[in-house]
Amino acid sequence: MYRFIDDYETRKEKHLIWASTRSVLENIGFLRNKNGKKSRSHWNLFVRLLNIFGFVLKITGYYRKGYGNAKTIQIAEITLEYPNLPEAFDGFRVMHLSDLHIDSIPGFASILAKKIKYLKFDLCFLTGDYRKDISGSIGHILKPLKILSCYIKAPYGSFAVLGNHDTFLMAQYASETGFELLINESVEIEKDGQKILVTGTDDPFNYYTEQAMLCLETRGYDFKIALVHTSELAKIASANNYNLYLCGHTHGGQICLKEGFPLVSHQFEGKKFNQGLWKIGKMTGYTSRGAGVSGMPVRFNCPAEVTIITLSKMQ
Question: Does domain 2-23+38-313 have CATH number 3.60.21.10?
Answer without folding.
Answer: yes
